[in-house]
Design a protein that fits this description.
With 476 residues, the chain is mainly α. The protein is built from 16 helices and 6 strands. A 3-stranded antiparallel sheet has the order 1-3-2. The protein has a 3-stranded antiparallel sheet with strand order 4-6-5, with helices on one face. Helix 2 packs across helix 3. InterPro entries: JetA.
Length: 476
């Protein structure tokens, strides 16, 4: 087994440190330990390593016992004896260190034990982190590595960016797991009231609104993903930048061991490149959210429509009504003695009348009507100007020439005349600002061709009189 992968936990802590937290009264031990640490070695008290007399510690434990419920199996034990037993258990486990100072026993908490308690306390109180904003921090850290190439300490920002990338991925995955755990717990609730309260409090407020919406809107991790991946590959492919980062990892992480330093650099690079697959994790998170919503709606609908012993309730109501006299306040008003008759029941539902669709009458057209319809269609088709028809007309008129003016344009059909009019329309819009021309669908019909008016000269042909325009290939 790789010893580097195994943290030397019990080389730094007593082996029995977790024994009080693994017994039947573990919650009580943790409660007492938290109160003692908060009272004597908290933020406003002593620092770990400072001593206090054993009498003071035992007195604090006594106050905790008096303020809380009796311990399991210790109901007949006096408070003073029980407090000394608890102190002895915590001391033997290693949470408290006892030293004799003359005639007085002094108690302290070692700094390492204080650090362990702080970590456990923070873990117990930790809420889901809003780490979507860290995606921008990842990008800024990578930029600092690139821009501050002369500063050797700037390489530490690469390690920080990798940690933030790992936290971002973990947050997305953890949110999906939290959704599953919450829904599994809510499904076991029997009361519809408890289910609805838990769904809107635990799921909607704490997960969907607090975490999910924040992740999918303002701090969406996809917004800077491309830049992060690009800069990571750039630092990896550039020999000078890569050697600078590897040298920093060898010095600070590997402690002079190049193999360990390069392994740490590759591991952090892999964490940054994992953001390239973050869309798959977001898709799975979306699926978990949708499944949770569907399960919740189905369960709410079921709990609201379930019979819930309605037959028993109706039987009880009928038995109670049987012994009541007419005019009793519990009976319906103005019942008139017919509250047991069919007159008080709801009217039966009448089936809706089936709607019969009106048959479509087939009409046969005469030859003359068919001919007129064909002529109308041909008239519409001949007057329709598409981009392909206009391009073919211009290509036929240019005939390998670079430009042609409106005097030389030929009109041999109705469609040619319509294309001619469309060229005149394009020429009239050539003087418009560039921004308007770029988004004008009429101007986009001809690619690589410019149509513009030529000075104040006029064109007078058999069909119309207008300002002369020129059709020319762009670049001439």
């Amino acid at each position: 087994m790789d010893q580097e992968a195994v943290a030397p936990l019990f080389d730094r802590l007593p082996e029995g440190i977790f024994r009080p937290l693994g017994v039947a009264n573990s919650r009580h031990y943790w409660d007492v330990l938290s109160r003692v640490m908060s009272t004597l070695w908290g933020d406003d008290g002593r620092a770990p390593g400072e001593e206090v007399s054993k009498t003071v510690v035992v007195r604090v434990i006594e106050s905790c016992i008096v303020a809380n419920d009796p311990w399991d199996g210790e109901l007949q034990t006096p408070v003073g004896v029980l407090s000394h037993m608890i102190f002895k258990t915590l001391s033997e486990a290693g949470w408290f260190s006892v030293r004799r100072r003359g005639l007085v026993d002094m108690v302290t908490v070692k700094p390492r034990i204080g650090m362990l308690f702080t970590i456990l306390n923070e873990f117990a109180r930790q809420e889901p982190e809003y780490i979507g904003g860290q995606v921008r921090s990842i990008l800024l850290n990578l930029r600092s590595v690139t821009e501050d190439s002369s500063d050797p300490n700037a390489c530490s920002a690469y390690q920080t960016a990798a940690k933030q990338a790992r936290q971002c991925m973990a947050h997305i995955i953890n949110t999906g797991c939290r959704v599953q755990d919450l829904m599994d717990g809510l499904v076991e609730l029997e009361s519809a009231r408890d289910f609805v309260h838990g769904f809107f409090t635990d799921f909607v407020e704490r997960v969907y609104i607090a975490d999910y919406s924040e992740l999918r809107t303002r701090n969406h991790p996809l917004q800077y993903r491309g830049q992060i991946i690009e800069k990571t590959y750039a630092l990896q492919d550039d020999e000078a930048s890569r050697e600078r980062l590897v040298s920093w990892y060898v010095e600070h992480i590997g402690k002079g061991d190049r193999e360990r330093g390069e392994a740490a650099y590759r591991r952090d690079t892999h964490q940054l490149l994992r953001l390239n697959n973050i869309e798959d994790h977001l898709a799975r998170l979306d699926e978990e959210i949708n499944i949770a919503n569907q399960r919740a709606l189905a369960l709410i609908e079921y709990k609201l429509r379930a019979p819930k012993h309605l037959d028993k309730l109706i039987s009880r109501a009928c038995a109670a009504l049987a012994g009541m006299e007419e005019g009793h306040p519990a009976l319906p008003g103005d019942a008139g003695g017919v509250h047991w008759s069919a007159l008080a029941l709801a009217k039966p539902r009448r089936p809706s009348r089936e709607q019969v669709a009106t048959a479509v009458e087939a009409i046969e057209l005469s030859d003359e009507e068919l001919a007129m319809e064909w002529l109308r269609r041909r008239m519409v088709e001949n007057r329709k100007v598409t981009a392909v028809q206009l391009a073919n007309y211009v290509a036929r008129m240019l005939d390998d020439k670079q430009r042609v003016d409106s005097d030389a344009l030929e009109v041999g059909s109705i469609n040619d005349l319509c294309c001619y009019q469309r060229l005149l329309l394009i020429a009239s819009r050539d003087d418009a600002p560039l921004q308007l021309r770029r988004h004008d669908p009429v101007m986009q019909m001809l690619r690589g061709i410019r149509v513009r008016f030529e000075d104040e000269r006029m064109t007078n042909n058999d069909y119309m009189t207008h300002r002369r325009f020129v059709v020319e290939r762009e670049g001439v």
